[in-house]
């Protein structure tokens, strides 16, 4: 089965479009994935690191004001301690909304609990600070253990967030690399495939067209050869088929032209020859003593002159026939007088070649509807 030019081009373009669609879908999917990773690294991991660092700074500031208050018992330091505590709680609440990792959530919950424990110890110490049994070393040790644990957990969360961010950056690089490789491969494949399709289609179209071009030149030089079967798309094959039909028709027209020239030559030569021979006889004075024969020759010359005129008219009639403008004049009459008239026209030529023509009248012939001049053309 031969594929048409349209089918070949459509097939090639469909393959290219499928590859482009695949590339577009792949790129859109991975770019969306890349955007999500980037957004997650920035809005989750990056923000988590910032919040943990703020919590760490707040914790350091709070411990500093707590120590200053314990030593000086100045309520300004205590108020600063309470103010920082508000910031710490706010950052804890925001961190709980930001953090998505289960381990980080667990560590954040522990920090929150431990910070509450720290506040409880501080409040106990604050109540007992003026008591004679107050022992600062006990509270200091207890607070130190809690604060150390908080700092450790904060650092763990920061480390986990950084690790998660780095992993997302690595995955982003991998996705970018994969997208780049697929794009390069697809572009190369589409280029090579498009080149092959274009080359194949161009070759399958150009070769038969070149053959038809050469055949056209041959026709222009009068050689009416046909185009043999050539491997080509159906459209070109159909064109070659009609080209062969055209060649045959041109060959027929050329033959008709030669036949026409031959016919015209015969039609003009015959009456001219008759006129020439009859005139020669008259000039020789061969029938001066025979008035009847002399008159007969003169009649023949006259008729051949009319025949010559009729031949020219018939040539013009052929042109009219080609233009479908021929006119016919039908009448009902006997055909025998027409045949007899044709025999008399050809008698001088036959006589010169020593040919005897004998016309034997047939039996009774019925009259027919005919055009005398056209029948005379047929008989001549």
What does it look like?
The protein is 82% helix and 2% strand. It is mainly alpha-helical and 380 residues long. The protein has a two-stranded antiparallel sheet.
Which features characterize this protein?
8 helices; 380 residues; mainly alpha; 82% helix
Helix-strand blueprint:
Layout: H1 5-72, H2 75-98, H3 102-127, H4 136-220, H5 234-284, H6 291-322, E1 331-333, H7 336-352, E2 368-370, H8 372-379
Antiparallel strand pairs: 1-2
Describe the structure concisely.
The chain has helices at 5-72, 75-98, 102-127, 136-220, 234-284, 291-322, 336-352, 372-379; strands at residues 331-333, 368-370. It is mostly helical and 380 residues long.
Largest sheet, strands/sense/barrel: 2 strands, antiparallel
Distance from first to last alpha carbon: 56 Å
Q: What class do helices, strands and sheet pairing give?
A: mainly alpha
Q: Assign an overall shape.
A: rod-shaped
The residue ranges in which pLDDT falls below 50 over 5 or more consecutive positions are: none
